[in-house]
Amino acid sequence: MYEQGSGFTPQESLAGYAVEATDGRIGHVDRQQDQAGMQHLVVDTGVWVFGRSVLIPAGVVTAIDTEARTVKVSVTQDEVKAAPRFTTDSETAEHAYLSAVGDYYLSLGHSARP
Question: Assign residue 2 a region: left if phi > 0, alpha if psi is -120 to 50, beta otherwise?
Fold first, then answer.
């Protein structure tokens, strides 16, 4: 779930928002999942991580600025790069994959169950 005070509102689409790690921009939100227990963002990293997308659990989102259209996350660029690889949309519905992503971010000390 999104952190309390992050600025998240359930009716708002974050698609197109820039995503900023603690040490720089990592891409933009391609799409989001707001289903209870599965909240996450799919972030298009462009050329930053060889053109791949990454899944970021809602629990690492610290701030959403609707005027600047940015989402800030509590992880570094290297932590995002090292996360379990996201390859297909079907993974966003796979319990094993979502658990692996959540466990990875939890191991970093973040509240991150997707």
Answer: beta
